[in-house]
From TrEMBL:
The lineage of its organism: Bacteria, Bacillati, Actinomycetota, Actinomycetes, Micrococcales. This is DNA-binding LacI/PurR family transcriptional regulator. Residues 3-46 form the HTH cro/C1-type domain. It holds the Pfam family Peripla_BP_3. Keywords: DNA-binding, Transcription, Transcription regulation. It comes from the Bacteria. SMART domains: HTH_LACI (SM00354).
Amino acid sequence: MATIDDVAKAAGVSTSTVSYVLSGKRPISAPTRARVERAIEKLGYRPHAGARALASSRTNVIALMAPLRVGVSVPVIMQFVAGVVTRARDFDHDVLLLTQDDVSGLDRVTSGSMVDALVMMDIEADDPRVPLVAAAKQPTVLIGLPQDPEGLSCVDLDFEAAGRLAVRHLVKAGHTDVALIGSPPEVLRRHTSYAERLMRGLRDQAKSSGVRVKVEACDSTPSGASEAVDTLLATAPETTGIIVHNEGALPHVLARLAERGAVVGTDMSVVAVCPTDVALSQRIPMTSIDLPAEDIGKVAVDMVMTRLEGEQPSETRLLAPVLTERESSAYGPAAVHG
């Protein structure tokens, strides 16, 4: 016996769209309505009154999967969460927060009727969660970009463009040797999408600009930051421009550079990729490419609610990076790194 999910799949729409065609509670375009009606007729779907009511019911809850994995910046994660929660309230929806690092909670949520839709964070290039949400009846939006985003709805900062922008800024200031102090090793081992995309953009721009580039993974601890800085200055001593993409390590990187005699803003330029509030809280005002975490969270909710209403196809939205120049990326005569 055909189900409403079978009809939705055959018509290429969400189950909520089928429900609205049946109930008439929402306006549905004529072409979409015709596809649904053809699928109903072809499959012989015959909803009774109770099933029709069930199909159109809502929980007014959005699930947010934000796994608190090793190497992630919890304060930054919470900025994304704040954006999702505040925007969900504008739609009179609550948020169910899932923080475990496995698929069991995701499977439990998608297989039942606990939530209307999902937003999923910390996307890996080949993320094992993606097939589950792609097959789920609930509409889903990813904050992040998997290797193959076809058929999925995704939103994020354009990290490739951010990497290119950071290098261009340093090249324009006169640097010929630049470096990235990047994400923790655990993040890179998971092939987390944002880290790989930023490195790809950075390396592509460095190659096209004809400058040398060095990449150092960095634990988000004082000792990890010190080790990354020491390794960088030992293996690439001509480096005069550094991009830091690691919010937890940023203050410790600045402190270690100072201990090594590198005056940030004079003989060493530093550009941070981070939320603006993180950049402004450092010991020296940081030139930064903003990670608009709260705004991205809000856009994710807008996208998932549009999909929940039926008509929105899958799409990818990448927010253009914006660089704000401050004291940290000024550049003068190179100093000796003692």
